[in-house]
Amino acid sequence: QVQLVESGGGLVQAGGSLRLACVASGVDFSTSDMGWYRQAPGNQREMVASIAPDGMTNYADSVKGRFTISRDGFKDTAYLQMNSLKAEDTSMYYCYLNRIRTYWGQGTQVTVSS
């Protein structure tokens, strides 16, 4: 079955960086859309970034210029490089994969201290 395993979350000071990784298995990664959502307690889940199989990317306005999404077809892995982190980036981050249907990772916590 399809599995998405996330890693890379943690605690970082404001202005710092983190890189999230999402490893996919059980699916044709090369034809799948990948991306990240985040959800903080009491808030709705919001799209952070996405990347299509052809490499086309899309970002939430709140992270443009600070976050970069990428994918590695050899490792079946999507990455979210997060720079210049702010306290408001604190959230649970969820990786997703779209191919016929949507699959979700287990989530990884990112906490930015101000």
Q: Would you give an account of this structure?
A:
The protein contains no helices and 11 strands. Helix content is 0%, strand content 56%. Strands 2, 4, 5, 6, 9, 10 and 11 form a 7-stranded mixed beta sheet that branches. It has a 4-stranded antiparallel beta sheet with strand order 1-3-8-7, with no helix packed on it.
Short description:
The protein has 114 residues and is an all-beta fold. It is built from no helices and eleven strands.
Structural class: mainly beta
Strand fraction equals: over 45%
Radius of gyration: 13 Å
Number of alpha- plus pi-helical segments: 0
- β-strand number: 11
Shape: globular
The major sheet is characterized as: 7 strands, mixed
Secondary-structure element series: EEEEEEEEEEE
List low-confidence stretches.
none
Instruction: Please estimate the helix content.
Output: under 10%
Query: What is the typical, i.e. mean, pLDDT?
Result: 96
Distance between the termini: 40 Å
Give structural attributes.
mainly beta; 114 residues; globular
Write the layout of secondary structure elements.
Blueprint: E1 3-7, E2 10-13, E3 18-25, E4 33-39, E5 46-51, E6 57-59, E7 67-72, E8 77-82, E9 91-99, E10 101-104, E11 108-113
